[in-house]
Structures are given as C-alpha cells and as structure tokens.
Amino acid sequence: LIGRLMFELPEEMGLIAVAVRQTQGKGRGGNVWLSPMGCALSTLHLSIPLHSNLGQRIPFIQHLVSLAVVEAVRSIPGYEDIELRVKWPNDIYYSDLMKIGGVLVNSTLIETTFHILIGFGFNVNNSNPTICINDLIAKFNREEGTELKPLSADCLIARTVTVLERLIEIFQEKGPNGVLPQYYKYWVHSGKQVRLRSEEGPVAWIVGIDDYGYLQVHQEGKGVESVHPDGNSFDMLRNLIVPK
C-alpha cells in the first residue's frame, strides 16, 4: 500500500501504516517474521535528500530506527533501566539474551531523493514464545519494588516515530558523531570478543561502527576492519561473524 502511495504524495509528507497483526511479515535475507496481536508493527515512509548527511550514509537508518525503538521505552521517566538494547545491524534485544524485535529498511533513489520504507516490529505484550517489553517491565517492578505501568503498542509506535524524527534531525546536523554516543550506550557489543569465519577462526574484538554504519572489528596484527551486514551474519549466541 505504502509502496504505491509514496510517489504520489508531496515530498515533505510522511506516511505510516500500522498493523494489529501481520500474516506475511518479512525479515532480512528472506526470513519470515511472525507477528501475532500484541506486537507493535508498522511501516514508515521517509524522504531523505541524497546530498544530506544521512543521504550519504543511508545504511545508518536501520541503526537510528533500532535506537529509536529502545529510546521510545527508555526515555520515559521511570523506565530508563528497562533492559532493552540494540544489536547491530537491526535487532532489538532484551539485554544480550533474547530478540524482541527487528527493523527492515528498503530504499529507492529517485533523482536526488531517497524514498525509504522502514518496517519495524517489536513484541510488546506476548509472553510466548520468548519475552516481551511488558514482561521486562513486570520483572523490573518485582525486583525494584516499583509500579511502572505496562505500555501499549500504539504508544510505543508513536514514541518511536517521534524519537526517530529527532535522531534524524541530529544526524543531519552533526553526522554520525551526533548519535553514536547514545547508540553505544544501548548496544550489546561493547568490548565483546568474536571469532571470524568459524569457531576456530581468528579472534577479533568489536570496536564500534564506522561512518557508514558498518561494524568495525579489530584483529590482532591486522588493525581495524569494517564488516558489511549484507555480506556477513553475526551469530551472537556463538560469538561468530561468518560470511553468508
């Protein structure tokens, strides 16, 4: 629906579709994304000028959206310590233990404008088959003696879009350095050791992400290299970066 509409609208007009349930959700690499009721599910259309800071670094958009989802919860007073985090390149995690959501970005360049379709979904209210944001809030209440209220999918979609708008403004003004400190505050990889290519492969350390949003790893004696998400997969459970 949005794919058909987005070229018919004025460039400055945003567009979002919100679903209560998805039957044909898609992830990266052709993966299927299961989306029952109780998830926050939407596709957002944005226009980004090619010659802007973000237009020159389009892969960064997925990082900004992942950060916006986490900030949508953790920027609410009282909810700052809910253990919601980002995993490079496009996942939302409970601590470094369990995936709770994901982001998929498609871009089309028409003349000097990127038309971006951002699909994001995250589990707000389903305890099965893994865990959801409201479970994390209930767990926090039990452990800390607080009485934080559960959150709704609609509220979190609205907050995510609002936070994303602010993050894009900051990025357009200041570039990657305007948002990276906040991204690193919430990401799961700081100082993590990984093996490249196989479980017996060379050891490397995750350093950060570069100016174009690619993962940087430091291998002893070889300096820092960038790893592209389209050519590599990061298996966090086994601490492996492997070519696809």
Automatic annotation (TrEMBL):
Ligase among keywords: yes
Gene3D superfamilies: Bira Bifunctional Protein, Domain 2
GO MF annotations in UniProt: biotin--[biotin carboxyl-carrier protein] ligase activity
Keyword Transcription: no
GO cellular component: cytoplasm
Superkingdom assignment: Eukaryota
Family the entry assigns: Belongs to the biotin--protein ligase family.
Name by which UniProt lists this protein: BPL1 ligase
Species assigned in the record: Peucedramus taeniatus (Olive warbler)
Organism phylogeny: Eukaryota, Metazoa, Chordata, Craniata, Vertebrata
